[in-house]
C-alpha cells in the first residue's frame, strides 16, 4: 500500500513532528522560530493532501507568514537573553518522557486499525466557495462571535501593553 | 441559503445577548471620546443598567418554547434560560463590586476597558449556556477565557496581578488545547459539530470496540480540559495563585460566573453526547456517561478533600476562598456524578446559592482588604467591635458557605446529598466524603469567625460602605437567608417555568 500519497504524507508528517520536537529542544529563540515554520508549512502540506487547498493557503499566509513574522518582531524589539534556562532535573525529564510515551501508546491503540466508514463527498469541489457559504449562512453566529473575540484580544493586548500616562492625564 | 431564509429565524430570542453586545460596544465608544480626567465609574453604571435590561428581556422569554436558530448554533431552551439567569445576576453583583473597587496602591480604580471586557466575558458565558453546536460553544468558551485573562491582569502595576495573569494564560492555553483535542475526536467520529446530530449518530453507530475506545479517550480529554476551567483537583493548581493576585472583583467573577459557565458547558456536552452512547456494543447497555461516572466521582472526591484540607493552612483570605471555591466545585461535581432525577435542579440551586453567599463574602473581603491594605486573616480581628453589622453579615455568609441549616448553602448541600442516594446504586462513598469534608471546612470558616468576634481589634477606624457595595451586601444576605428558609421560591420557579429541563435534547 505504498501509494504516492502515503509516501508524501509520511514525509510531511515526519517534518512536522521533527519541527515540533526541535522547537522544544533548541535553546536559541531564532532557531526555535525556524523549527516552528517547518511545522507550520508541513501542516499546510497535509491540508493539501486532504484537498483542502484554501485552508492550506490560509495556513501558510497566517501561520507561516504573519504569526511567525510578528513573533520575530516581538523577539527582536524586546530585550532578552538569547538562550533559555537550564533544563530541570533528569528525574523530571524521565517522568515527562514516560508520560508522553504512555499517552502515545494509548492513542496508538486507538487509531492503529481504526476503520471509519468511507463516505463519498464533494468537499474538494470548489472548496473555497463551500467554506464561504457555510461560514456566512450556517455558521454566521459563531463567525460574528469570533469577530467580538478578536476585538477583545485587540483591546486587551493594547490595554496591557500601552504605557500609562496617569500623571500627564492629571495635569490636563 | 437565501436571505429570506436567514431572516425567517426568530432572531429576537437573542435579545439579551444583543443588549450585552450593544452595551459593550457603546461603552468602548464612550470610553474613547470621554475626557481623560473624567471618572470612568459612570461606564460601570451603564454596564449595570445593560445587564439589568438583559435580565428583564430574558425574563420576557421565560414562556418561550424551545427555539433554535441556524441548526442549533443558537438555541434557547429551559436549560439555557435557567443558567443564563444565574450568569446575569452573578455578573450584575460582581459589576457592582467592581464599581466600588478602590485600591491603595497603583490605579485608584479600573480603567474604562475593564467594564467592556467584563461584558464581553459575560457574553461568552451566555453563548456557552445557549448553544447546541460545538463551534459556538467553543468560541463562547474562548471569549470568556480571553476576556478573563485580560481582567486578571488589569491592575498592571501590581506585580502579583501580572504573575497571576501569566499563570492563567499558560494554564488556560493548555486546557483549551486539551479540550479541543478531545472535541476533535468526537467530531472525527461523528462528522458533525451539532450536538444533537452527534448523539443521534453515536446512538445508531452501534460502535466497534475501537470507536468506543476513541470516544472514551475523547471523554477523558474533554473532561480534563474543562476541569481546568472549574478548577477541580488535580487541575486546580492555578486557582489559588490567580485568585490571590487578581483584583477582588475579578476573583469574584472567576469564582462565580466563570465557574457557572464551566459547569454549564460540561453538563451540555457530557449529558447530550456521552449520555446517549451505549458503553458497549449492545444497544441496551448503560450510557457511557454512567459507565464512566466513577472517574468523575473520583475527581469530585479528590476535589472536596484537597480543597478543604489545604484551605485549613491558608493565612491569606483570598487563597482560602480559592480553596473553598475548589471544594464547592467538588460538591457540585457530586451532583453531576450521581446523575439522578434531581441533578439539574441540584446543580442549578447550588450555583444560585453559591452566587449569593460568595459574592457577599467577596464584597466584605474587598472592603476589609482595601481598608487594611492586606488580605491576611488577621485584618479581620475584632471586626465585630469595629463594625458589628458588617461582622454579622459576614458571619451569615460564612455559615451558609459552611452549610449550616437555615441558609441557602445547607439546602444546596442537602439536595446534592439526597441526589447521591436517589440513584441505583447509591453513592455512599461520595455522600460520606461530602459530609466529612464539610465538617473539615467548619474549622477554617469558623477560624475567620473567631478572628471577627473574639480577637481584639488592631484599630478602631470605622468603615464607610459605598452604595454599590451596600446593594451587593443586602442582596446577597437576603438571597442567602430567603433561599435557606424558603427554598421553594427557587424550586417552584424552576418547576413552573422550566419543566424539569425536558427539552434539553429536543
From TrEMBL, chain A:
Protein name per the record: NADH-quinone oxidoreductase subunit J
Listed EC numbers: 7.1.1.-
Mode of membrane association: Multi-pass membrane protein
Alphabetized Gene3D superfamilies for the sequence: NADH-ubiquinone/plastoquinone oxidoreductase chain 6, subunit NuoJ (1.20.120.1200)
One GO CC term on file: plasma membrane
Keywords attached to this entry: Cell membrane, Membrane, NAD, Quinone, Transmembrane, Transmembrane helix
Catalyzed reaction equations: a quinone + NADH + 5 H(+)(in) = a quinol + NAD(+) + 4 H(+)(out)
Intracellular or extracellular location(s): Cell membrane
Transmembrane segments: 6-26, 33-50, 56-78, 90-111, 139-161
The keyword Membrane is assigned to this record: yes
Record's function text: NDH-1 shuttles electrons from NADH, via FMN and iron-sulfur (Fe-S) centers, to quinones in the respiratory chain. Couples the redox reaction to proton translocation (for every two electrons transferred, four hydrogen ions are translocated across the cytoplasmic membrane), and thus conserves the redox energy in a proton gradient.
Enzyme class: translocase
Main location: membrane
Similarity comment: family membership: Belongs to the complex I subunit 6 family.
Superkingdom classification of source: Bacteria
Any one GO MF annotation of this record: quinone binding
From TrEMBL, chain B:
Protein name: NADH-quinone oxidoreductase subunit N
PANTHER family for this protein: NADH DEHYDROGENASE
Entry's family note: Belongs to the complex I subunit 2 family.
HAMAP family (alphabetical): NDH1_NuoN_1
Entry-linked NCBIfam families: NDH_I_N, PRK05777.2-4
GO biological process, one term: ATP synthesis coupled electron transport
Broadest EC class assigned to this enzyme: translocase
Signal sequence bounds: none
Domain NADH:quinone oxidoreductase/Mrp antiporter transmembrane residue range list: 131-432
A cellular-component GO term for this protein: plasma membrane
Role this protein plays: NDH-1 shuttles electrons from NADH, via FMN and iron-sulfur (Fe-S) centers, to quinones in the respiratory chain. The immediate electron acceptor for the enzyme in this species is believed to be a menaquinone. Couples the redox reaction to proton translocation (for every two electrons transferred, four hydrogen ions are translocated across the cytoplasmic membrane), and thus conserves the redox energy in a proton gradient.
Keyword line: Cell membrane, Membrane, NAD, Quinone, Translocase, Transmembrane, Transmembrane helix, Transport
GO molecular function, one term: NADH dehydrogenase (quinone) (non-electrogenic) activity
Domain of life according to the entry: Bacteria
Protein EC: 7.1.1.-
Compartments where located: Cell membrane; Membrane
Subunit structure, interactors included: NDH-1 is composed of 14 different subunits. Subunits NuoA, H, J, K, L, M, N constitute the membrane sector of the complex.
